[in-house]
Design goal:
This protein is mainly alpha-helical. Helix content is 75%, strand content 2%. The chain folds into two domains: 12-184, Tetratricopeptide repeat domain (Serine Threonine Protein Phosphatase 5, Tetratricopeptide repeat, Alpha Horseshoe); 196-291, Serine Threonine Protein Phosphatase 5, Tetratricopeptide repeat (Alpha Horseshoe), CATH 1.25.40.
């Protein structure tokens, strides 16, 4: 058939539509790159990504042939997200980010913020943090920049500082207010010593929670872990699993913060907390977008319908005014004729 992509000639597959075959496109991209035809190679790598966006080789090629530093940064970030052990990609991303920071000027603040958000969303937190720090240095009035910087900051004190900067610029920012509330709640008060009975009962609750998890009962597991932390607030593992099974983001975030307050070196809890913060930022951003949408016209069709309703009314009003003016002119003309012309 004419639309077939592959035909067989003596058992050898022949590609009749190479632009639609990933391996063929990638091979052409590498060939153009080897010939130092970077523009052509970039086009082929971009097409390869369209065909298979989850291939790290295509992203690495796109990054290596990118015409701009910003595109290279994003492409290396995607490469690293798909291939976390790729040391070359890690080194290239670090070099590109450092060069971008050195070149940055005041007008680049928004671009750096956008790059930071993109890198945070694909899990490249260290580089996202550096970009967002520089973005907020260049534009201290950027609410979004401070919010994202708060989301990727490792230290609680810096998170609080960033959220307070948002509120300095906009005291009505509800997202920053909510974030500041749970950030300030991280500082755990001094706990009274846990009695032996309470510790034993807490451990029993913890074990029951683990059993509930293994049987797939998430709600029961959460209840047991919450009971364990209530009985023994120093139980690090109970806090971690309470956060992992929490039914809402706020409780999950607070639980992971308790883990880090007890053990700041818990790398698993650090990673989990960072992902939860990003999810919370996205959730809040989505809520703000929906609220704005509710206050605006529902859609273009509704706007056109309302506009069509207004137009006939406007035309009728114009016609009425014109008739009134003409009538008045006729009356004045008749009065002048009767008054000034004798007999």
């Amino acid at each position: 058939m004419a639309d077939q992509t592959v035909t067989e000639v003596k058992s050898t597959p022949i590609i009749t539509q190479p632009w639609g075959d990933f391996d063929t496109v990638l091979r052409h991209a590498e060939k153009a790159r080897a010939a130092n035809d970077l523009n052509r190679a970039h086009t082929f790598f971009a097409r390869a990504i369209e065909l298979n966006p989850n291939d790290a080789r295509a992203w690495a090629g796109l990054a290596a042939t990118a015409p701009t530093l910003d595109e290279a940064i994003m492409s290396w970030a995607y490469t690293l997200a798909l291939a976390p052990d790729n040391l070359d990609a890690r080194g290239e991303l670090d070099t590109c980010v450092q060069e971008r920071l050195v070149r940055a000027r005041r007008v680049d603040a928004a671009v750096l913020g956008a790059l930071g958000r993109t890198l945070a969303q694909v899990g490249q937190r260290p580089w996202a943090y550096r970009l967002l720090v520089r973005s907020t240095e260049l534009d201290p009035r950027s609410e979004e920049g401070w919010l994202w910087r708060a989301g990727v900051a490792e230290e609680n004190d810096e998170t609080i500082f960033c959220l307070k900067q948002v509120l300095l610029n906009n005291p009505d920012n509800q997202q920053a207010r909510a974030g500041l509330a749970w950030a300030e709640a991280r500082a755990m008060p001094v706990q009274a010593p846990v009695t032996a009975d309470a510790a034993q009962e807490s451990e029993s609750f913890f074990e029951q929670g683990q059993h509930a998890l293994r049987t797939g009962s998430m709600e029961r597991a959460y209840d047991f872990f919450r009971g364990a932390t209530n009985l023994n607030p120093q139980h690090e593992s109970a806090w971690y699993w309470r956060g992992s099974s929490a039914p809402n983001l706020d409780d999950a975030i607070a639980s992971m913060e308790h883990v880090l307050a007890l053990n700041p070196q818990n790398a698993t809890a650090k990673d989990a907390l960072w992902l939860l913060r990003i999810k919370k930022l996205r959730e809040n951003a989505q809520r703000v977008t929906e609220q704005r949408a509710e206050r605006s016209p529902n859609n273009q069709a509704a706007w056109r319908k309302a506009n069509r309703t207004r137009r006939p009314r406007g035309r009728l009003l114009s016609i009425a005014i014109a008739i009134t003016i003409i009538t008045l002119a006729i009356v004045i003309a008749i009065w002048i004729w009767l008054t000034l012309i004798p007999g």
